[in-house]
Amino acid sequence: MREINVAMIGEGFMGRTHSNAWSQVTKFFKPPVRPVMYTSCGRREEHTKIFSNHWGWTHASTNWEHTVRLPEIDLVDIVTPNFMHAPVAMAAIEAGKNVSCEKPIAGTLAEARAMVGAAEQARVQTFVWYIYRRCPAVALAHKLVKDGALGAIRHVRAFYLQDWADESIPLVWRFQKEGAGSGAHGDLNAHIIDMTRFVTGEEITEISGAVAETFIKQRKKMTGTAAGGIAAGVQAGEGTGPVTVDDTLLFLARFSGGAVAGFEAARQATGNQNRNGFELNGTKGSLKFDFERMNELQYYDATRPRAVQGWTTIMCTHGGDHPYAEHWWPDAHTLGYEHGFINQAYDILQVLGGHEPTVPIPDFHDAYQTQRVLEAALVSAAEHRPVALSEVR
């Protein structure tokens, strides 16, 4: 089996999920190429060595510029804060490397555009970790819509609600525009924009009615770094600093097939730890998905006799019928968050080995379309007007 040497740039929360994926993928799947966890690259030398040893990387580095140019490296995996996506990706592409990158593809639309152009010119393979496509229930929803089970889609509702960002959380990078680009919008709306584009097979054509709000405008400055979660273990120090991104952003949209849609992203939606999902209503049926019950898909078949119509709960864990399920456990021995990353690692290796992924995997060009929607919603919120996607290039 041919080997692919992987260099991961960044550590933290996403570094843990990606490291776990690369270490587990060949234990459950049989990809055409095998990943070798060659180098992990972080900012602090001692911590990077500890991280690398713990997660099974062969080498540790604090010099990402040198790492991405190593002749031994075949794939550069970027898990840094958003503002570093473009510099690392551009250097890796210039060195002729294939690149996988956390979402959103970049901190700004201009950076994303440059990344797409560089990748297309260099003809390297690119991948973006929109991992909710890799949930068996979401992949099944994609197949059902593609097969016509919903008929014409009339209405889309999408939401991503969390509640971790209360007043006790200090000023981590996710609250600063220079590091993140935007707040709940780029972090959470990005996922549900990609997911609804994927499941419906349609593009968003117009944004209107966008509203953004920052509820906590000053936060205490942080000391130290996170202990591996979104903001786990971060301690507050003296003084405060301004929050320069949104806490919540909601918007209305139109899809290319004629459906109207509403999107909601919030980090202070009390009681919602990771409520990420969608509802699609069509002329023949409807679908509902909620990541807090990630193994289930709700399906309403309106073509059945009216006397027996009703919502059906599909447990998407049956091997052979539900995407990815055959690689995991017996029926209803459910999957968790980390399995989406392992499923994506498998599909990346499938593509690098010349095979088709289980379901379509976003490259930089695909992820750029989601970035355009993010930008259009920001413009709509700032200028209080509808924004056609044709305006955002």
CATH class of the largest domain: Alpha Beta
Rg estimate, integer Å: 21 Å
Number of domains: 2
Count of helix runs: 10
Strand order, largest beta sheet: 16-15-14-13-7-12-11-8-17
CATH superfamily of the largest domain: Dihydrodipicolinate Reductase, domain 2
What structural class do the secondary elements suggest?
alpha/beta
Tell me the strand percentage band: 25-35%
Number of strands: 17
Provide a short characterization of the protein structure.
The protein is an alpha/beta fold.
Would you mind describing this structure in some detail?
This protein is 32% helix and 27% strand. The chain is an alpha/beta fold and 393 residues long. It has 2 domains: 2-128, Rossmann fold, CATH 3.40.50; 152-282 and 364-383, Dihydrodipicolinate Reductase, domain 2 (2-Layer Sandwich), CATH 3.30.360. Strands 16-15-14-13-7-12-11-8-17 form a 9-stranded mixed β-sheet. It has a 6-stranded parallel β-sheet with strand order 3-2-1-4-5-6, with helices on both faces. β13 (275-282) and β14 form a beta hairpin. The longest helix has 20 residues, at 364-383. It is globular, with a radius of gyration of 21 Å. The N and C termini lie far apart (42 Å).
Give structural attributes.
393 residues; Dihydrodipicolinate Reductase, domain 2; 2 domains; 9-stranded mixed sheet; 6-stranded parallel sheet; globular
Spell out the blueprint of helices and strands.
Layout lengths: L1 E8 L2 H17 L4 E9 L3 H11 L3 E3 L2 H5 L6 E4 L6 H10 L3 E4 L7 H14 L3 E3 L7 H11 L6 E9 L15 H4 L3 H17 L3 E10 L4 E6 L11 E8 L5 E8 L4 E7 L8 E8 L2 E6 L5 E6 L9 E5 L21 H16 L11 H20 L3 E2 L5
Parallel strand pairs: 1-2, 1-4, 2-3, 4-5, 5-6, 7-12
Antiparallel strand pairs: 7-13, 8-11, 8-17, 9-10, 11-12, 13-14, 14-15, 15-16
Helix pairs in contact: 1-9, 4-5, 5-10, 6-8, 8-10
